[in-house]
Amino acid sequence: MDKLLRPVTNPSLAALIAAIVDQDGSASHSYCAPAINGDRQSFVRDLVDFADFVHLVALLHGQVPGLIDHAAARTVEVAARSWLLKAIDAFALERQYLGRLSVSVGPLPSTIGHNETTTIVAQQRHAIEMLAQSDRRGCALGTAVTLALEWHPIRAILDAGAIRLGIEPPACHVPSRSETLALLADLPDPDRLSRAIQFGATQLLGQHRGMWDLLKARAAVRATHR
Known about the structure:
Elements: H1 11-24, H2 33-36, H3 40-45, H4 47-61, H5 67-74, H6 81-105, H7 114-132, H8 139-164, H9 177-186, H10 190-224
Helix pairs in contact: 1-9, 1-10, 4-6, 4-7, 4-10, 5-6, 5-7, 5-8, 6-8, 7-10, 8-9, 8-10
């Protein structure tokens, strides 16, 4: 489908956000980069670590309304409406998938510092919700498009774990990287929105990196106490 998209005519904002995500996103984090970049089976071989991952992702992005729903209510750019509508429908299905995986992997793994974990994740979720509901024009959209760009590597790990559990992963309808970057390239008056979109992007990536840091720390604690 991506090959049918019209060429990017104004690549500056799109290229900028793509570079930010590539540099600071999930695919660059030391804990998960090997899995995202190819060695997924080794990451999901330990189903306790995978269960931790599923539950933390669900705690961040499994709520209703979700980040995309909030962002759609705050985004006035007409050019973004069709992308947002597609993303809303897609993430409704992704939440169902997360729910199914959460049941299949069992409860959140018992780890020393559990209370601190739930507090940290609640704070991260609150920060994400605030970004998605920001009145600063472009911030909510920047958060939404960055989630879509981040979701595909996250989904790759979810799918590898699902297969490990004997679950057939459903099709993913989240807007592709090409569709998302084309949206950014086609926005009218991108210079006016650029700083706010960048802010939303970098702040969401910071929350995701915090999630990966927490997962890495929890895995290390469990390994020490085995």
